Amino acid sequence: MTSPNAPTLPPQQQDHEKAQAAAAAVRWVRDGMVLGLGTGTTAAHFIRQLGEKVRAGLKVQGLATSLASEALAKEVGIPLLEPRRGLTFDLAIDGADELDPQLRLIKGGGGALLREKTLETASRYLLVIADSSKLVPQLGRFPLPLEVVPFSLPWVLDAVEKLGGAPVPRMRKDDPTASYYSDQKNLLVDCHFQTIADPEGLAVRLKTIPGIVEHGLFLGLAQAAIIIQDGQAQVLRPGEAARPAAEFSELP
After folding, report:
1. Mean pLDDT value across residues 13-24
2. Is 116 known to be catalytic?
3. What is the secondary structure of 69-111 as a DSSP string?
4. Cα torsion for 75, 80, 82, 85, to the nearest 10°?
5. The CATH number of 144-213 is which of 3.20.20.140, 3.40.50.300, 3.30.870.10, 3.30.70.260?
6. Whole-angstrom Cα distance, residue 216 to residue 145?
7. The overall pTM is greater than 0.70
8. Nearest-angstrom CA–CA distance, 230 and 242
């Protein structure tokens, strides 16, 4: 999905930009890295391109943030790890539904926010890859996802409504009468804040609501992002001007 306050891209251009951002990120993967593999259409481009490198001899291992990404990684031949104590990642690569100039993110449009935040918190470096529609001046137009314990849903909806979030339980695209469940069998709720003036404050308030397993605000996690602007891959770092990705031979 595309943020409503971002420029609308033709689907073909958007997909091309996603592949372009993924290609820029693959250049920075090195032999021996342990990788966190993200979820969503942009991350899928990265996984496929990484698989090509693996089949050509690149030695890496990874752990996926969703069952869908795990299946794709297996299909393209990326060796996968199991969760274990002490496991950290050299690099996590993932998309975002929105990101602002400080690299604060909204994630979870694909329903994998809990696993994504778990792996990306355990990573030494989080690199976001995104098409040009995802960069916004302020977060919030894209609905903020929550992962919610089913029993707690009514009270979570009440509490988020009081915060101005206009919460809507997510339904399956293939069956609009059926609830959408995460890989952990929790429900997803999409919150329509429109603007989030204080992401850090909202994150704290959401954490106090019983039944919310995780929220889709990813704050202080991303070290850099690759964004396609005017057809070129650009590197963004928090609060800094964009620089061409081609200037960097290693992670910025």
Report:
1. 96
2. yes
3. HHHHHHHHT--B----TT--BSEEEE--SEE-TT--EE--TTS
4. -150
5. 3.30.70.260
6. 5
7. yes
8. 12
- Paired sense of beta strands 187-191 and 167-169, if any: antiparallel
Collapsing DSSP to helix, strand or coil, 200 comes out as helix
In the prediction, which pLDDT does 7 show?
57
Predicted local confidence at residue 2, as pLDDT: 42
Q: What stretch(es) of the chain map to CATH 3.30.70.260?
A: 144-213
Find the catalytic residue in 70, 98, 116, 214.
Answer: 116
Name which of 122, 112, 109 is nearest 183 in CA terms: 112
Residue 217 in this model has a pLDDT that exceeds 80:
yes
The CATH number of 11-134+219-242 is 3.40.50.1360
Alpha-carbon distance 208 to 202, whole Å?
10
pLDDT per position as a tens digit, 93-138: 999 999 999 999 999 999 999 999 999 999 999 999 999 999 999 9
